[in-house]
Amino acid sequence: MTSKNRSDTVARPTGERRRARRGDGELLREEILHAAEQLLVAEGDKDAVTVRAVAKAVGVSAPSIYLHFADKDELFYFTCRRVFEQFNARLVEALAAEGTVVDRMMRAGRAYVSFGLEHQGQYETLFGSKSQDTIPVEHVASDPGVHAFSLLVALIQAGVDEGELRDDLDVQSAAIAVWSAVHGTVNILLTKRGMEDIFNIPSNEVVIEATLEVILNGLRKK
Amino acid sequence: MTSKNRSDTVARPTGERRRARRGDGELLREEILHAAEQLLVAEGDKDAVTVRAVAKAVGVSAPSIYLHFADKDELFYFTCRRVFEQFNARLVEALAAEGTVVDRMMRAGRAYVSFGLEHQGQYETLFGSKSQDTIPVEHVASDPGVHAFSLLVALIQAGVDEGELRDDLDVQSAAIAVWSAVHGTVNILLTKRGMEDIFNIPSNEVVIEATLEVILNGLRKK
DNA sequence: GTGTTCAGTTAACGGTGTTAAGACGAGGAG
DNA sequence: CTCCTCGTCTTAACACCGTTAACTGAACAC
Questions:
Q1: What is the spatial distance between Cα A84 and Cα A90, in angstroms, rounded to a whole number?
Q2: Do A130 and B45 touch (CB under 8 A)?
């Protein structure tokens, strides 16, 4: 009998765990990623999640983490990469859907912002200002986001070719402009703090719609 | 003689310092802020600047910092607030200058982005995703940025009244849209990492001009 | 059974922000 | 001048952090 019941080593969020079998080191890795994701979502910031806390949640000692990840940054990169792939899938879906180019970019923009707001911890880990240092460069090229950005560029190019968008703009720059707008919107809506008490800031939905509408209107051919 | 020469306690960037006189605790405070600013600019990230390093640069022990600041966050808030006031002054200047509403917003946008890029450490400390937790709420209301944002709202309102800008948009939302765009641009240009190797991203100047042009074009009346 | 090797452990290091308690010295009161 | 107060700053220490070195113990091969 080559495969016994091994499910009791996985999905044991707390309490004592049994040592994995010879070739089952990968199981702990999955448990670690799962625990790290839960803690990151709960805290909303990877700096607030300690390696020791992740280890404790899995029911393992802290140095065991380093059997599966080079350091904390790599751990959280892979932790976020999973949800980032869902993120990317939603973007690709919206960008490839039916409708005019502006409609599709509008839907993708909504998906982008709402996803960023719903996954604050992961979003900031991957897109935050300090991700520069924390993300292993060798993974950047295979980032799902690179694919989504390529699709955005292609969609804008198509919009230009079909006469729906202005043809007097550099396509790459236009794509970055769109990305800047949605990225900035996520950032601002995540950090608006007590600003609502000072100004009467509209709801998130209104802000999102307005921002997307303005930038896409600025891109559309007159 | 009520005022002796006290200049030997200030501006002593390194080496031994003399204990301050009875009422001169404020002098050390200024020295601390100055050292913290220098280190922040050098490192580009406040998390990379330790309290002990600031103390050492001033020539004082680490706990002395806490005689003048409640904690590290407050220290760097006040460290950045100074340069932030220059930032704000440049924005106000651009927004209040001559020319059409779009021209003034364009100039203010350029000033915003270039300032953010030139003062990465301070910009991210004040506007970064985690500023939520690190900035004392009681200071937010008096933030210089609040003033600049009010001016932006007023300028957009004026543009609407004068018929230069679209009148079918919520003014507050439009202001946030503009702010999101420039804020996102700063963020992306600061973190673009090895992206240039993958895509052929245009120069910062081209990206800035394109982004501002698109968003303002989207705001302008047809 | 015996040895190997993987999967984990305990102990420890250097560093962090921060606090508690005391030392030192300037300046006012007598 | 002497004494005392009190603001200024120091030394020592705490709890915690990410991370590494050295060790243990169980599962498998033979």
A1: 10
A2: yes
